[in-house]
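Both lines are given unchanged directly below:

***
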Amino acid sequence: METVSKLTVSELTELIRCRLEEDFPLVVVEGELSNCRPASSGHLYFSLKDAGAKIDAVMFKNRLRTLNFEPRDGMLLRVRGSLSVYAPRGTYSILCEEMEIAGSGELLAMLEERKQKLAAEGLFDENRKKPLPRFPSTVGVISSPTGAAVHDILNVLERRAASVKVVILPAPVQGTEAAAIIARRIEQANQWKLADVLIVGRGGGSLEDLLPFSEEAVVRSVAASEIPVVSAVGHEIDWALCDFAADLRAPTPSAAAELVSGEMATVYDTIRNITDDFTNAINNRIDKARLLMRPFNIDDLEFRFRAILQPRILRLDDKKEALVNSFLVLVNGLRTRMELAIATLEASSPISVMERGFSMVLNSKTGRVIKQAKDVKPGDHLEIRPLHGKITAITEESYGEKQ
Protein backbone atom coordinates (compact mmCIF):
# COMPACT_ATOMS: atom_id res chain seq x y z
CA MET A 1 0.00 0.00 0.00
CA GLU A 2 1.41 3.38 -1.02
CA THR A 3 2.28 5.79 1.74
CA VAL A 4 -0.33 8.58 1.78
CA SER A 5 -1.56 11.02 4.36
CA LYS A 6 -3.50 9.13 6.95
CA LEU A 7 -6.96 10.50 7.85
CA THR A 8 -9.30 9.51 10.61
CA VAL A 9 -12.96 8.88 9.81
CA SER A 10 -13.89 12.14 11.48
CA GLU A 11 -11.30 14.07 9.50
CA LEU A 12 -12.47 12.59 6.20
CA THR A 13 -16.10 13.28 7.02
CA GLU A 14 -15.25 16.86 7.95
CA LEU A 15 -13.50 17.36 4.60
CA ILE A 16 -16.55 16.02 2.77
CA ARG A 17 -18.87 18.21 4.84
CA CYS A 18 -16.86 21.34 4.13
CA ARG A 19 -16.65 20.62 0.41
CA LEU A 20 -20.41 19.84 0.07
CA GLU A 21 -21.62 22.72 2.17
CA GLU A 22 -19.25 25.21 0.53
CA ASP A 23 -19.89 24.05 -3.04
CA PHE A 24 -23.68 23.68 -2.61
CA PRO A 25 -24.76 26.53 -0.34
CA LEU A 26 -28.16 26.61 -2.06
CA VAL A 27 -29.88 23.90 -4.10
CA VAL A 28 -33.30 23.55 -5.66
CA VAL A 29 -34.33 19.91 -6.02
CA GLU A 30 -37.46 18.42 -7.55
CA GLY A 31 -38.60 14.88 -6.74
CA GLU A 32 -41.35 12.67 -5.44
CA LEU A 33 -42.07 12.84 -1.71
CA SER A 34 -41.56 9.49 -0.02
CA ASN A 35 -41.37 8.05 3.49
CA CYS A 36 -42.87 11.18 5.05
CA ARG A 37 -42.36 10.98 8.85
CA PRO A 38 -43.63 13.84 11.04
CA ALA A 39 -41.69 13.74 14.32
CA SER A 40 -43.10 14.44 17.78
CA SER A 41 -40.77 17.45 17.95
CA GLY A 42 -42.71 19.02 15.07
CA HIS A 43 -39.97 18.53 12.44
CA LEU A 44 -40.71 16.73 9.16
CA TYR A 45 -38.35 14.03 7.91
CA PHE A 46 -38.80 12.66 4.38
CA SER A 47 -37.07 11.58 1.19
CA LEU A 48 -37.09 12.92 -2.35
CA LYS A 49 -36.65 10.42 -5.16
CA ASP A 50 -36.82 9.95 -8.88
CA ALA A 51 -36.35 6.90 -11.09
CA GLY A 52 -32.61 6.64 -10.35
CA ALA A 53 -31.83 8.00 -6.89
CA LYS A 54 -33.10 9.12 -3.50
CA ILE A 55 -31.94 11.77 -1.02
CA ASP A 56 -33.00 12.37 2.58
CA ALA A 57 -34.37 15.73 3.64
CA VAL A 58 -35.65 17.52 6.70
CA MET A 59 -37.76 20.62 7.22
CA PHE A 60 -37.76 22.10 10.71
CA LYS A 61 -40.84 23.12 12.62
CA ASN A 62 -40.38 26.87 12.22
CA ARG A 63 -40.27 26.52 8.41
CA LEU A 64 -43.22 24.08 8.27
CA ARG A 65 -45.53 26.83 9.52
CA THR A 66 -45.10 28.66 6.22
CA LEU A 67 -46.60 25.79 4.16
CA ASN A 68 -50.13 26.13 2.81
CA PHE A 69 -50.57 22.39 2.18
CA GLU A 70 -49.99 19.09 3.99
CA PRO A 71 -47.12 17.05 2.52
CA ARG A 72 -48.11 13.47 1.66
CA ASP A 73 -46.28 10.56 0.11
CA GLY A 74 -46.42 10.54 -3.66
CA MET A 75 -46.51 14.31 -4.13
CA LEU A 76 -44.13 15.79 -6.66
CA LEU A 77 -42.36 18.58 -4.74
CA ARG A 78 -39.82 21.29 -5.37
CA VAL A 79 -37.66 22.17 -2.36
CA ARG A 80 -35.08 24.88 -1.78
CA GLY A 81 -32.35 24.56 0.80
CA SER A 82 -28.75 23.62 1.51
CA LEU A 83 -26.83 20.38 1.84
CA SER A 84 -25.78 19.19 5.27
CA VAL A 85 -23.63 16.26 6.39
CA TYR A 86 -24.53 14.35 9.54
CA ALA A 87 -21.15 13.10 10.72
CA PRO A 88 -22.24 10.39 13.24
CA ARG A 89 -23.96 8.48 10.44
CA GLY A 90 -21.86 9.63 7.54
CA THR A 91 -24.98 10.70 5.59
CA TYR A 92 -25.97 13.88 3.87
CA SER A 93 -29.37 15.47 3.45
CA ILE A 94 -31.12 18.63 2.34
CA LEU A 95 -32.09 21.21 4.96
CA CYS A 96 -35.26 22.59 3.35
CA GLU A 97 -36.11 26.25 3.72
CA GLU A 98 -38.98 26.30 1.22
CA MET A 99 -41.30 23.68 -0.28
CA GLU A 100 -43.91 23.83 -2.99
CA ILE A 101 -45.97 21.38 -5.01
CA ALA A 102 -44.45 20.72 -8.43
CA GLY A 103 -47.32 18.55 -9.64
CA SER A 104 -49.16 15.36 -8.78
CA GLY A 105 -46.85 12.48 -8.16
CA GLU A 106 -46.81 9.79 -10.80
CA LEU A 107 -47.46 7.13 -8.15
CA LEU A 108 -50.50 8.87 -6.72
CA ALA A 109 -51.83 9.53 -10.20
CA MET A 110 -51.48 5.86 -11.10
CA LEU A 111 -53.21 4.78 -7.89
CA GLU A 112 -56.02 7.26 -8.41
CA GLU A 113 -56.56 6.01 -11.95
CA ARG A 114 -56.62 2.40 -10.72
CA LYS A 115 -58.97 3.32 -7.90
CA GLN A 116 -61.44 4.90 -10.33
CA LYS A 117 -61.30 1.86 -12.59
CA LEU A 118 -61.94 -0.66 -9.81
CA ALA A 119 -64.64 1.51 -8.25
CA ALA A 120 -66.43 1.63 -11.63
CA GLU A 121 -66.50 -2.17 -11.59
CA GLY A 122 -68.29 -2.09 -8.23
CA LEU A 123 -65.49 -3.67 -6.22
CA PHE A 124 -65.76 -0.99 -3.55
CA ASP A 125 -69.58 -1.00 -3.23
CA GLU A 126 -70.89 -1.11 0.32
CA ASN A 127 -73.51 -3.74 -0.51
CA ARG A 128 -70.71 -6.19 -1.29
CA LYS A 129 -69.25 -5.99 2.18
CA LYS A 130 -69.90 -8.82 4.63
CA PRO A 131 -70.27 -8.52 8.40
CA LEU A 132 -67.54 -9.97 10.59
CA PRO A 133 -68.43 -13.12 12.56
CA ARG A 134 -69.27 -12.35 16.17
CA PHE A 135 -67.37 -15.32 17.59
CA PRO A 136 -64.70 -16.52 15.14
CA SER A 137 -63.04 -19.78 16.09
CA THR A 138 -60.16 -19.32 13.60
CA VAL A 139 -58.50 -16.11 12.38
CA GLY A 140 -56.31 -16.19 9.28
CA VAL A 141 -53.42 -13.73 9.03
CA ILE A 142 -51.85 -13.03 5.64
CA SER A 143 -48.61 -11.17 6.23
CA SER A 144 -44.90 -11.65 6.70
CA PRO A 145 -44.45 -14.22 9.51
CA THR A 146 -41.38 -12.35 10.77
CA GLY A 147 -42.92 -8.89 10.65
CA ALA A 148 -44.00 -6.81 13.62
CA ALA A 149 -47.60 -6.87 12.39
CA VAL A 150 -47.99 -10.61 13.01
CA HIS A 151 -46.52 -10.32 16.49
CA ASP A 152 -48.86 -7.44 17.32
CA ILE A 153 -51.88 -9.43 16.12
CA LEU A 154 -50.87 -12.52 18.10
CA ASN A 155 -50.32 -10.47 21.25
CA VAL A 156 -53.72 -8.81 21.03
CA LEU A 157 -55.56 -12.10 20.32
CA GLU A 158 -53.72 -13.86 23.13
CA ARG A 159 -54.81 -11.13 25.52
CA ARG A 160 -58.40 -10.68 24.33
CA ALA A 161 -59.41 -14.09 22.93
CA ALA A 162 -56.93 -16.78 23.91
CA SER A 163 -59.23 -19.58 22.70
CA VAL A 164 -59.19 -18.33 19.10
CA LYS A 165 -57.04 -20.37 16.74
CA VAL A 166 -54.68 -18.35 14.51
CA VAL A 167 -53.56 -19.59 11.08
CA ILE A 168 -50.67 -17.63 9.55
CA LEU A 169 -50.47 -17.73 5.76
CA PRO A 170 -46.96 -16.39 5.05
CA ALA A 171 -46.49 -13.88 2.25
CA PRO A 172 -43.95 -11.16 1.46
CA VAL A 173 -45.40 -7.71 2.05
CA GLN A 174 -43.24 -5.70 -0.35
CA GLY A 175 -41.40 -6.29 -3.59
CA THR A 176 -42.44 -7.29 -7.08
CA GLU A 177 -43.60 -10.78 -6.15
CA ALA A 178 -45.57 -9.80 -3.06
CA ALA A 179 -48.91 -8.97 -4.72
CA ALA A 180 -49.23 -12.30 -6.55
CA ILE A 181 -48.45 -14.30 -3.40
CA ILE A 182 -50.83 -12.26 -1.23
CA ALA A 183 -53.63 -12.79 -3.75
CA ARG A 184 -52.86 -16.50 -3.90
CA ARG A 185 -52.98 -16.79 -0.08
CA ILE A 186 -56.44 -15.19 -0.02
CA GLU A 187 -57.63 -17.67 -2.65
CA GLN A 188 -56.14 -20.61 -0.76
CA ALA A 189 -57.81 -19.54 2.48
CA ASN A 190 -61.17 -19.53 0.70
CA GLN A 191 -60.51 -22.73 -1.21
CA TRP A 192 -59.69 -24.73 1.92
CA LYS A 193 -61.92 -22.72 4.30
CA LEU A 194 -58.96 -22.11 6.59
CA ALA A 195 -60.49 -19.35 8.70
CA ASP A 196 -63.68 -17.58 9.72
CA VAL A 197 -62.15 -14.15 9.08
CA LEU A 198 -58.95 -12.95 7.38
CA ILE A 199 -56.60 -10.14 8.36
CA VAL A 200 -54.53 -8.93 5.39
CA GLY A 201 -51.85 -6.34 6.01
CA ARG A 202 -48.48 -5.25 7.30
CA GLY A 203 -46.81 -2.59 9.40
CA GLY A 204 -46.16 0.96 8.28
CA GLY A 205 -43.93 1.99 5.43
CA SER A 206 -43.55 4.34 2.53
CA LEU A 207 -46.10 4.52 -0.25
CA GLU A 208 -43.84 2.36 -2.40
CA ASP A 209 -43.57 -0.26 0.36
CA LEU A 210 -47.34 -0.51 0.53
CA LEU A 211 -47.83 -0.82 -3.25
CA PRO A 212 -48.45 -4.61 -3.27
CA PHE A 213 -51.69 -4.04 -1.36
CA SER A 214 -52.88 -1.69 -4.13
CA GLU A 215 -52.20 -4.12 -6.98
CA GLU A 216 -55.26 -5.25 -8.94
CA ALA A 217 -54.67 -8.91 -8.15
CA VAL A 218 -54.81 -8.28 -4.41
CA VAL A 219 -57.80 -5.92 -4.61
CA ARG A 220 -59.79 -8.38 -6.74
CA SER A 221 -58.95 -11.29 -4.43
CA VAL A 222 -60.07 -9.29 -1.40
CA ALA A 223 -63.33 -8.32 -3.12
CA ALA A 224 -64.01 -11.91 -4.25
CA SER A 225 -63.26 -13.51 -0.88
CA GLU A 226 -66.18 -15.39 0.66
CA ILE A 227 -64.39 -15.14 4.01
CA PRO A 228 -64.76 -11.64 5.52
CA VAL A 229 -61.53 -9.65 5.11
CA VAL A 230 -60.11 -6.97 7.39
CA SER A 231 -57.53 -4.75 5.71
CA ALA A 232 -54.78 -3.63 8.09
CA VAL A 233 -52.15 -1.95 5.95
CA GLY A 234 -49.65 0.37 7.64
CA HIS A 235 -50.52 2.96 10.25
CA GLU A 236 -53.51 5.27 10.55
CA ILE A 237 -52.25 7.75 7.94
CA ASP A 238 -51.35 5.00 5.44
CA TRP A 239 -53.76 3.61 2.88
CA ALA A 240 -53.96 1.07 0.08
CA LEU A 241 -56.62 0.17 -2.49
CA CYS A 242 -57.41 -3.08 -0.70
CA ASP A 243 -58.78 -0.92 2.14
CA PHE A 244 -61.70 0.03 -0.10
CA ALA A 245 -62.41 -3.55 -1.23
CA ALA A 246 -62.14 -5.12 2.23
CA ASP A 247 -65.19 -5.73 4.38
CA LEU A 248 -63.62 -3.59 7.08
CA ARG A 249 -60.55 -1.37 7.30
CA ALA A 250 -58.44 -1.26 10.45
CA PRO A 251 -56.00 1.59 11.05
CA THR A 252 -53.29 -0.81 12.31
CA PRO A 253 -52.75 -4.59 12.55
CA SER A 254 -53.31 -4.40 16.31
CA ALA A 255 -56.62 -2.64 15.74
CA ALA A 256 -57.58 -5.38 13.27
CA ALA A 257 -56.99 -8.02 15.95
CA GLU A 258 -59.16 -6.03 18.36
CA LEU A 259 -61.94 -5.77 15.77
CA VAL A 260 -62.10 -9.50 15.02
CA SER A 261 -62.06 -10.37 18.73
CA GLY A 262 -64.37 -7.57 19.83
CA GLU A 263 -67.53 -9.57 20.57
CA MET A 264 -65.61 -12.40 22.17
CA ALA A 265 -63.59 -10.03 24.31
CA THR A 266 -66.82 -8.35 25.44
CA VAL A 267 -68.35 -11.71 26.35
CA TYR A 268 -65.18 -12.71 28.20
CA ASP A 269 -65.20 -9.41 30.08
CA THR A 270 -68.86 -9.90 30.98
CA ILE A 271 -68.22 -13.45 32.20
CA ARG A 272 -65.19 -12.28 34.17
CA ASN A 273 -67.22 -9.46 35.75
CA ILE A 274 -70.07 -11.81 36.67
CA THR A 275 -67.59 -14.34 38.03
CA ASP A 276 -65.84 -11.65 40.07
CA ASP A 277 -69.17 -10.35 41.40
CA PHE A 278 -70.31 -13.86 42.30
CA THR A 279 -66.98 -14.69 43.93
CA ASN A 280 -67.02 -11.43 45.89
CA ALA A 281 -70.59 -12.07 47.05
CA ILE A 282 -69.71 -15.59 48.24
CA ASN A 283 -66.55 -14.33 49.95
CA ASN A 284 -68.50 -11.56 51.67
CA ARG A 285 -71.02 -14.11 52.97
CA ILE A 286 -68.20 -16.38 54.15
CA ASP A 287 -66.49 -13.45 55.90
CA LYS A 288 -69.75 -12.46 57.55
CA ALA A 289 -70.34 -16.04 58.68
CA ARG A 290 -66.82 -16.19 60.10
CA LEU A 291 -67.43 -12.98 62.04
CA LEU A 292 -70.66 -14.37 63.43
CA MET A 293 -68.96 -17.65 64.39
CA ARG A 294 -65.89 -16.03 65.89
CA PRO A 295 -67.37 -15.92 69.47
CA PHE A 296 -67.96 -19.68 69.30
CA ASN A 297 -65.06 -21.99 69.87
CA ILE A 298 -64.68 -25.61 70.84
CA ASP A 299 -64.05 -24.84 74.52
CA ASP A 300 -67.16 -22.83 75.31
CA LEU A 301 -69.49 -23.91 72.50
CA GLU A 302 -71.33 -26.39 74.80
CA PHE A 303 -71.59 -23.77 77.55
CA ARG A 304 -73.04 -21.20 75.13
CA PHE A 305 -75.42 -23.79 73.74
CA ARG A 306 -76.64 -24.69 77.21
CA ALA A 307 -76.96 -21.01 78.11
CA ILE A 308 -79.28 -20.63 75.14
CA LEU A 309 -81.17 -23.91 75.70
CA GLN A 310 -81.54 -23.98 79.53
CA PRO A 311 -84.09 -21.13 79.88
CA ARG A 312 -86.24 -22.77 77.25
CA ILE A 313 -86.03 -26.15 79.01
CA LEU A 314 -87.08 -24.51 82.30
CA ARG A 315 -90.01 -22.82 80.61
CA LEU A 316 -91.03 -26.13 79.07
CA ASP A 317 -90.83 -27.89 82.45
CA ASP A 318 -92.90 -25.15 84.12
CA LYS A 319 -95.55 -25.35 81.43
CA LYS A 320 -95.60 -29.15 81.67
CA GLU A 321 -96.05 -29.07 85.48
CA ALA A 322 -98.77 -26.44 85.21
CA LEU A 323 -100.56 -28.53 82.59
CA VAL A 324 -100.31 -31.73 84.71
CA ASN A 325 -101.61 -29.90 87.79
CA SER A 326 -104.50 -28.47 85.82
CA PHE A 327 -105.43 -31.94 84.60
CA LEU A 328 -105.22 -33.35 88.18
CA VAL A 329 -107.50 -30.62 89.56
CA LEU A 330 -109.95 -31.24 86.74
CA VAL A 331 -109.86 -35.02 87.27
CA ASN A 332 -110.28 -34.71 91.04
CA GLY A 333 -113.25 -32.42 90.62
CA LEU A 334 -114.85 -34.80 88.17
CA ARG A 335 -114.14 -37.74 90.51
CA THR A 336 -115.82 -35.95 93.45
CA ARG A 337 -118.87 -35.09 91.37
CA MET A 338 -119.07 -38.68 90.18
CA GLU A 339 -118.86 -40.02 93.74
CA LEU A 340 -121.64 -37.67 94.88
CA ALA A 341 -123.78 -38.75 91.96
CA ILE A 342 -123.19 -42.40 92.79
CA ALA A 343 -124.10 -41.79 96.43
CA THR A 344 -127.26 -39.96 95.43
CA LEU A 345 -128.23 -42.72 93.04
CA GLU A 346 -127.58 -45.38 95.64
CA ALA A 347 -129.58 -43.48 98.21
CA SER A 348 -132.46 -43.17 95.79
CA SER A 349 -132.40 -46.85 94.80
CA PRO A 350 -135.40 -48.99 96.07
CA ILE A 351 -133.02 -51.82 96.63
CA SER A 352 -131.08 -49.76 99.19
CA VAL A 353 -134.36 -48.99 101.02
CA MET A 354 -135.44 -52.59 100.92
CA GLU A 355 -132.08 -53.69 102.29
CA ARG A 356 -132.94 -51.71 105.40
CA GLY A 357 -136.08 -53.92 105.96
CA PHE A 358 -138.70 -52.21 103.88
CA SER A 359 -140.98 -54.05 101.44
CA MET A 360 -143.14 -53.04 98.51
CA VAL A 361 -146.93 -53.76 98.60
CA LEU A 362 -148.86 -54.19 95.33
CA ASN A 363 -152.50 -54.85 94.51
CA SER A 364 -152.43 -58.38 93.11
CA LYS A 365 -155.27 -57.70 90.77
CA THR A 366 -154.19 -54.32 89.39
CA GLY A 367 -150.44 -54.54 90.03
CA ARG A 368 -150.48 -50.99 91.39
CA VAL A 369 -148.15 -50.04 94.24
CA ILE A 370 -150.01 -49.38 97.44
CA LYS A 371 -148.85 -46.06 98.81
CA GLN A 372 -151.68 -45.28 101.22
CA ALA A 373 -154.01 -47.35 103.40
CA LYS A 374 -157.05 -45.91 101.68
CA ASP A 375 -155.92 -47.45 98.43
CA VAL A 376 -157.10 -50.87 99.70
CA LYS A 377 -160.31 -52.18 101.19
CA PRO A 378 -161.12 -55.32 103.06
CA GLY A 379 -160.94 -58.41 100.93
CA ASP A 380 -158.32 -57.06 98.44
CA HIS A 381 -155.60 -59.51 97.59
CA LEU A 382 -152.18 -58.04 98.19
CA GLU A 383 -148.63 -59.00 97.13
CA ILE A 384 -145.82 -58.11 99.49
CA ARG A 385 -142.33 -58.01 98.02
CA PRO A 386 -139.46 -57.84 100.48
CA LEU A 387 -135.79 -57.74 99.30
CA HIS A 388 -135.97 -61.43 98.52
CA GLY A 389 -139.03 -63.44 97.75
CA LYS A 390 -142.81 -62.64 97.66
CA ILE A 391 -145.64 -62.74 100.23
CA THR A 392 -149.42 -62.81 99.46
CA ALA A 393 -152.08 -61.54 101.83
CA ILE A 394 -155.81 -60.67 102.04
CA THR A 395 -156.82 -57.34 103.48
CA GLU A 396 -158.98 -57.68 106.50
CA GLU A 397 -159.11 -54.07 107.50
CA SER A 398 -157.38 -50.72 106.55
CA TYR A 399 -156.89 -47.72 108.70
CA GLY A 400 -156.40 -44.13 107.50
CA GLU A 401 -153.86 -41.59 108.81
CA LYS A 402 -156.35 -40.00 111.20
CA GLN A 403 -157.44 -43.25 112.71
Notes: The longest helix spans residues 301-348. The chain has eleven helices and 13 strands.
